[in-house]
Amino acid sequence: MPELPEVEAIAISLRLLVARHKIRCVHVLHPIVTQPQSPDHVTRSAENHKIQSVARRGKYLFLVLDRGVIEMHFRFDGHLIWFKNAKDLLDRANRKPDGVHVDVAFELDKGVLAFTDNRHLGRVHAWESIDACLGAAKLGIDPTSNEFTQAAFAELLAGSRRPLKAFLLDQSGIAGIGNIYSCEALWHARLDPRRRADSITSADRRRLHKAIVSVLRRALECCLQPAPDFRDPDWWFRGIDDILRVYNREGQACRRDGHPIRRLAQGGRSTYFCEYCQK
DNA sequence: CGCACATCCTGTGTGC
DNA sequence: TGCACACAGGATGTGC
């Protein structure tokens, strides 16, 4: 589920918790999560290595170790949970009927960081460096960085014949935007998600650039208020629905003109928009 | 090359 | 209530 703002909020909170701590031991409880890498590869790469820092690239999260990195990607349902110690983990993890689902656990001296994903689409991998991570290497510009200039954005738009919605979801152009914030940015910019990327005017482009930046910044503020609390097994971002204007609001009145929000399928994903004010 | 589509999984909500 | 089905905030490989 998480897009750039959620992963960034996780990175910020996790950094405070784990930076400069050593990984004593790794438990891969559901090996599917390390595929196509072997559980042993991930375990050996992490054990007895110190976490120097936590980094984000697009929607990828990295534990940067004194040697190598651990990549985590949450896809739809992945998230992180904190356990007090190994005993706490054994007592509560994967115990039916209502234990906490855990796929991979990293035991530190001060507690246990667990990656969990019921749906098992998320992944935990080990690489020699962030740049060696195949997925991260293909990522485009980070829209929260100063590389995301009008000029760079204009060049990307001009080079794509795809609908704006598909253009924004393409991680190799701009990295970190997902289904929610692409819909939101297009609404704020008053642009039809079906418009071809190379068809928009410079005024359109400036509005969309501004909308992307402000939507992501607003979402990050929301994700940090309150900040993620990994100790609570039920934690998740709250209050985000309140700042959304179109996502998951089919049939509701558009906040600008009162017309009903429509849903349509684009590339197998749902797009929400107002066809009266988004042109 | 660009693009549409199926696929990987499991849980939840909806309508009959 | 039980059941079938649609759908889910993502990325990748396939075939056209």
In short:
The protein is an alpha+beta fold and 279 residues long. It has helices at 4-18, 39-46, 86-92, 134-137, 150-158, 164-169, 179-188, 202-223, 240-243; strands spanning 22-28, 49-57, 60-65, 69-73, 79-83, 104-108, 112-116, 123-127, 262-266, 269-273.
> By CATH's scheme, which homologous superfamily of the largest domain applies?
MutM-like, N-terminal
- Percent in helix: 25-40%
Cα separation of the termini:
28 Å
Query: Main beta sheet, described?
Result: 8 strands, antiparallel
Uncertain ranges = none
CATH topology annotation of the largest domain = N-terminal domain of MutM-like DNA repair proteins
Helix/strand/pairing category = alpha+beta
Strand order of the largest sheet: 5-7-6-1-2-3-4-8
Q: Estimate what percentage of residues fall within beta strands.
A: 15-25%
How many separate structural domains?
2
